[in-house]
Amino acid sequence: MSNTAKVEAKNTRFAKFIKGIEVVGNKLPHPFTLFVGLAVTVLILSFVLAKMGVSVTYLAASKNPGEAPKETVVAITNLLSYDGMRPFMENFVKTYVQFAPLGLIMTMMLGIGMVEQTGLINAFMRKTILGAPSYMVTAVLAIVGINANLASDAGMIFTAAIGGAIFKALGRNPKVGIVSGFAAASGGFTANFLIAGTDALLAGITESVATGSGIAAPTHPLINWYFMIAATFVVTFLTTVVTEKFTVKFLGDSSDAVDKSILKEHTVTEQESKGLRNTGIAAVLYILLIVMMTVPEGSFFRNADGNILPKSTFTKSVVPILFFFFLIVGVSYGKTVGVIKGEADIPKLMQKGLAGCLSFLVVALPAAMFIDLFNQSNLTTVLAVKGATLLKSLNLGGIPLIIMFIMLASFVNLFMISGSSKWLILGPIFVPMFAMLGLSPAVTQLAYRIGDSSTNIISPLSYYIPVVIGLMDQYKTDENEKNGIGTVISLLMPYSLAYLVGFTLLLIGWYFLKFPIGPGTSIFM
Question: Is residue 361's pLDDT more than 80?
């Protein structure tokens, strides 16, 4: 991409807005310092609000289907007390070590490091899609990211990491791959070709609310499936358009140069071709092994009921399955091309893959403490309930109610990132409210999911913002380059807005056309 085109791209009104978000966000302290400051702020707020006696009362859904919602009172917890600080100090190391993204990102980067450091990804990309239209590469990455939520949150890390590696191998800007992969995986929580654990979890809560409220309507895990299949194509399209029309131009990309001048220079050598053949054989054998351990009845990866979806040992083991896949194919390729000469070379290559995570490991410490304190203070619950009460008081109906509920879920999601926790609070309020207006629990759940998934990627409290910062730091070309929270949120904002608008318009169209949103499930009661 020419410098002139890049300058023109950054001079558009929307680009200036996004750049403004980045500038303001990056004027904040280093993420480490910022999370320390946020943790201190939560401690002070918890003390003040607890002394003021702030609390909320609401009907909380049960996670067990058939159980009626129960009235629950939640008060702000004073963390600046013996009872608040003793658990914090006692569990300090545990809180850090059990920080959700920590093990995921380290495991994934160890595996991806093998295929990247041996040159396998580079050779494979040059052999297959080097010279293909850039939008095709982005679209494929988007589809992978959307359906990666079968691995729950792990899919967000995997797609971001592999997106950076693939774009780098193609001579493109790896930051574009990180951003687009991460965004697609987030949007995938309301889009998928298959049924994931999220569907079963949310449907279980919906069923308990509907049963307890005497609402006779389908609440099985497939109630949003038809919509999710259609949404997969919508998210793929939106991700590709935003990436190629905005992110590429905003960050700069060298895809044009690759297409025109580096194709011949990057022709795969005979030794590399042999390595790819051996790697292909190893990959097929590994996949066959996984199939043999998954498909037959009573096999290892099935659950106790003999099923694979929506939840089983297979779905819970996606990360280790991918890790061993990357390890096996990486070693196979490395041995063939001579990069791996002995067993000692394997941990050295894995170590190089992990080196890029060092900045994340540092930031993860205060991030883990802040999120733990924020949750323990009950500030998240109070915010969610207050917002729901406000919306209920507006007495809206039909499309306006659906849109406002989506907006509420989007806003609450910025502060309370656990999807099931929010639905445990919002479900008992809005499922009966929607039902009184003739709208099914399925469409209530769907509207909630749209708001929840659209703003996941721009929540400053997200576990994975530090992960994205760490991945971007891994591909720094200038030591003075600053990748902060402002950088990440500004780059992800266009995707968040596109998903929010796209999902909402799709649901409105579904509403007027009266399409079923799942097997045996209608929008209307």
Answer: yes
